[in-house]
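pasting for the record
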Amino acid sequence: MSKNSALPLPPRALLLGALLAGALSPCALAPRDARAAEWTDVIDAADGDDPFDITAEVFYRRHLRRAKITREYNCDRLARPEDQSTCQGAPEGGQVVHVKELRYQRWTHEMVPRLQVGLWKDLALLIEAPVVMQDEQEVRYAGNGGDTSPDGSPAIDPANSSVAPDSGQQLFAVPTQLPVRSGFGDMLFKVRFAPVSHERDSSRGEWVLEAGYRAPTGTPMKFGNVGVGRGVHELELGTSFSRRYRYIEPYSSFLVNLPVGASVKSPFQQYAGSQEYITPGLRARFDFGAELIPYFNRRTGMKFFINLGLGAAYQGEGRDYSELFDALAIGGNACRADPNNITGNRDNKNNCAFYNPEARFGNPAPQAPAAFDGVTTVEQFVTVRGNIGFGLHVSQNVKFGASVALAHETEHNLTNSEIGRDLYKATPEEQGVLTPARTPEEAQEHNPTFTPSVDTIGRRIRVEETTVFSAAFTLAVMF
């Protein structure tokens, strides 16, 4: 018995209430021989003449992510005539607008072996060991979107780019040679328990509780390596419900992922100063869908089902890997080659990325690093998605399936760090103001992960028009 790999979606309150009522209260609408939906199927052990169950699965997943990268720009139509085309509609007094800069693509191929072992009645242990076979990215200048009119948005090139201009310093080169990542990922260990089961009571549906731990077993992604791990300890808690009605079984699921700390080898560390975040933000996902079952043979175990689902997810703000992590890390390494950029430039005219120089009083200390590693404070965003899939139980021992999904992420800043907090008020005039560090105590006011060239208002980087196309295939053997 297994968990479906497809990604479904959120119901309305009325439908959720009906589903919970169906799962937890007696009802005679479902046949006694109905099997649980793939989403809520929990294998078990010590169950009469079936003392032990085990399911071995292999998932193949492919993702294609596409997005537009924009950057804040301070319009000044009076002082700069060229802003007349860039800042159409902006007031003459000036305005911060988002100007397109780049186009981003990412292709990920992943193989995920999964093992489920029955521990007791309706209690199972699930282990995932993901392997990323290829993770490839591309960053290029944005085009004109097919608009060739004189008033249309022009294509971006080194002459008008603020990320990679043809003169002066760059955040990173465009195009740049990004690493092709691959390797062993972060393993998941999860316990699944069904306190309410249709198999135990044919008048009820299915209710599943899950608690898991994702360990940082993969090599954390950093500049100079091809690792695919995130370097974060994560706790996963979830619950799901389903109820069979003859040829259809609706289901819903809620999952929350809580980062609880970082490994010592990851870039997520706590430094000195008024640091906002250490690890990525929490993730919460809600899914709702239905499994259509046009054919089921209880004698042979053959079953054909179609899965239709929708979903929504919330990603909280935190320090995280972004679409531009590798590009910014490469650019940061180029900055380190120039000693003038290691301590930074207080007038913020330098486009080369470095961490907040004000957070390092005197000689740079390990608690407040100078080297920019590409990790940024990523703003919160929401993902909505839909999927369709099918599966076939060839027998009681073999199953395969496939699914496709399309997701969209809301616009959000990829660089969103705050400069710091006013902790030490040396004079009345300095209340609420972060002054240049003159003492180690005043240096504590400044956020060490603030990067002037990308976190300053008017220079922040944003991602828009994000779409993710996914395809998944699975093969399972059940004993």
